[in-house]
Amino acid sequence: MNWLTDYVKPKLSSLVNRKEPPSDLWTKCGCGERTLYVSDLKENLNVCSYCDFHMGMDVNSRLKSLFDNENYELIEVPFENNDPLKFKDLKKYTDRMKAAQKKTDQKDAAILAKGEIGSTKVVVFILDFNFMGGSMGQFVGEAFKIGCQNAVNLNCPFISVASSGGARMQEGIVSLMQLPKTVAAVNMLDQNKIPYVSVLTHPTTGGVSASFAMLGDIIIAEKGSMIGFAGKRVIEETIKEQLPEDFQTAEYLLEHGMVDMVVHRKELNQTLSKVLSFVKK
Ligand SMILES: [Zn+2]
């Protein structure tokens, strides 16, 4: 028996290769105060049980939480790689896309589904903040348009759930063209008398807030979400004035008539059910 290889080496390697506890068991709350147990957080729809901060939600959990009995059907959106500028900053845009696809298991930042909420048939469009900050490029604009067309064809209300940093700058002017495109799609809903409910979640900013997100017939914001166009600091520096502490929060926007309702995430399905019962034909 070799004492070195049979006894000392395993002892040493067990010390060196000691397993770290998995890092995805815990996460920090957006308030920065608390460390939360991931499974508890998921159970609580990603709302911090200490400060009630509504943290980001992955699209699958969002879909499950929205539809009756977690029951829905995805609507296919044709995907093509779109890199009109052959854009590259620190990384190539195509590489950023690949990394985001791997991370989220989604093709791009938008997802479409149909099902029932409060027994009303609906088409739902969701932006995934985990996918490049929920930014809107060609795919996202197209998905929104297809969603609206589906709602028209099915003659049912359309719901969008936004969380976004804005237009996808890597696609240059093509991303900006999604603003009028989504606005035109909302107009199409209007012409066909299809109700459009826009749900704003944390954060909804930039080109998304400057287009379809603020055009809902009814606009619902999740409690505490940050909603605005440019950031608070940028505005303060431009207008040389100090802005109130709660500027660009859902509650501030409600007070100033920009949104119709502020809702706790746990009550979102119920609130939507009620709203839909008012607007359905
Ligand atoms: Zn918290």
Summarize the structure in words.
Helix 5 (138-154) packs parallel to helix 7. The strands form two sheets. Strands 3-4-5-6-7-8-9 form a seven-stranded mixed β-sheet, with helices on both faces. Strand 1 and strand 2 (35-37) form a beta hairpin. The protein starts with a helix and ends with a helix. The protein has 281 residues and is α/β, with parallel strands linked by helices. It is 38% helix and 17% strand. The chain folds into two domains: 1-53, no CATH class; 57-279, 2-enoyl-CoA Hydratase, Chain A, domain 1 (Alpha-Beta Complex). The structure holds zinc ion. Zinc ion (ZN) binds at residues 29, 31, 33-34, 48, 50-51, 53. Zinc ion binds at residues 29, 31, 33-34, 48, 50-51, 53.
Roughly how many Å is the radius of gyration? 22 Å
Regions with pLDDT < 50 over 5+ consecutive residues? none
Can you give the mean pLDDT?
93
Strand content: 15-25%
**Net shape:** globular
